[in-house]
Amino acid sequence: MDNTNDLWRIRLEKLEMLRQAGIEPYADRYKRTHKAIEILERFEELEGQEVSVAGRIMSKRDQGKIIFAHVQDFSGRIQIYIRMDELGQTLFDLITKFDVGDIIGIEGKVFRTKRGEISIHAHNIKLLSKAMRPLPEKFHGLTNVETRYRRRYLDLVMNPDVRQVFVTRSKIIRVMREFLEEREFLEVETPTLHTIAGGAAARPFRTHHNALDMDLYLRIALELPLKRLIVGGFEKVFEIGRTFRNEGISIKHNPEFTMMELYQAYANYEDIMELTEDMIANIVQRVHGTLEITYQGQVLEFKTPWRRLPMLDGILEYSGVDFRSIVTDEEARQVAQEKGIHISADASRGKIINEFFEEFVEPNLMQPTFITGHPVEISPLAKRNAEQPEYTDRFEAFIFGRELANAFSELNDPIDQRQRFEAQTAERVKGDDEAHMMDEDFVQALEYGLPPTGGLGIGIDRLVMLLTDSASIRDVILFPTMRPRDENLRDEDIEE
């Protein structure tokens, strides 16, 4: 027996009955005076007063000539109390046909029941939207969480904690904007479609523009257009925007995600380091009211200044290998082999250093930590360190063993930048499809003069994960990327 079809038929019959009774089941508008939370929090002030609320029926109990129901709006739930002798037999009989899931408007007086529950004593009820499918009974805590991601709208209806995650996400972004605007950063918008995918080591998505008959790429970073603006005379800019990388999906990665990138003229990576820790600490304080939070059982302390750890020191600390005494590529490959690190036959010392860092150091960086001293080979857009030119003036911020931010003193030497692009192009020829492409226009922009500049990129989704104690990036993206299903989900699938 197909329960889904039976439920649909029953609700369709109710829909037709309502229309025959002269009730339009899909209203045009409804004027509210209060939200549920306002009535609950201001009961003493509102007791006995007329209010008008609207929301979705989440529970309903028919007790003969009395109906109790809970209605939920975005702010929360409130009980409504309905009596037949006050509404009249005709309207009351129609209300008995309303289902859990229907959206209604209620007018009535605020009171407290004998059991002490703040409620609305309804004297008028209007159907605003008839739900043709029943709400699931067991949507919260599903072991198959992909079902919740696929039907996020039901996840939001059934799970208030999920809604709160996205309220917090909005607040995090708002506080970040306020912090930067107070420091005279200008928010800008740059293209999503690029002729060259640049600004990061990542595999891009490719599309085709029919009118121009040319291939374009969805941006993998915000970096290069923003630095062109610094060349053009802007001195402090930032952008919060969607970024796309054609890579794997995991608890830390989604093919489209949100980045914040900023660039400040006449600053270096040390200036940006201070700005970064101050900004994140400010956001944590504003969102949680404290600089100490718990993420997945781990207490994290965001008090500034954060730990500064050179990459080579971290590798020595956690692997016992001192790359300061390993000066050739051949020596580095030999050590990698001894430590069981899988590398290509022609891997350079700089890339091997990065492999050691990711294997031995990164998982141990629980508290907020700045990693510095990245090799040039893995930092094609960063300025060389003046004293050790094989390394760059760059930092990455790590928290809970995950990269949260990446920043550096921007490379503004056009000759050096061209040479690094050429080296990256050679890597692409060898088969590295994440290596940077040659961007002639960007090099030309540098030839007109980029002032000393510090830049920063922060993954918004990972920051939201930390501040909402969310285990997966898909928990903080409203509609994460999912593989299509061959068939539509059945209601019984989500109630198991």
Sheet having the most strands = 8 strands, mixed
Report the top-level CATH class of the largest domain: Alpha Beta
Tell me the structural class.
alpha+beta
Described by the principal axes of the CA atoms, the overall outline is elongated
Mean pLDDT metric = 93
What share of residues are in beta strands? 15-25%
The DSSP helix count reads 16
Q: Could you give the count of β-strands?
A: 18
Strand order of the largest sheet: 6-10-11-18-17-16-15-14
Query: What ranges have pLDDT less than 50 throughout 5 or more consecutive residues?
Result: 491-496
> Mind telling me which CATH architecture of the largest domain this is?
2-Layer Sandwich
Helix content: 25-40%
The radius of gyration is 29 Å
Number of domains: 2
Distance between the termini: 17 Å
Question: Can you describe what's shown?
Answer:
The chain has 496 residues and is α+β, with helices and mostly antiparallel strands. It folds into two domains: 3-129, Beta Barrel (OB fold (Dihydrolipoamide Acetyltransferase, E2P)), CATH 2.40.50.140; 158-306 and 367-475, BirA Bifunctional Protein, domain 2. The protein has helices at residues 3-20, 36-41, 43-46, 84-87, 89-96, 145-150, 152-158, 160-182, 223-231, 269-288, 311-319, 329-338, 349-361, 414-429, 440-447, 460-468; strands at 50-63, 66-73, 76-83, 103-112, 118-129, 186-187, 193-194, 206-209, 214-218, 236-244, 256-265, 292-295, 298-301, 307-310, 369-372, 394-399, 402-409, 453-459. An eight-stranded mixed sheet has the order 6-10-11-18-17-16-15-14, with helices on both faces. A five-stranded mixed barrel has the order 1-2-3-5-4. The protein has a three-stranded antiparallel sheet with strand order 7-9-8, with no helix packed on it.
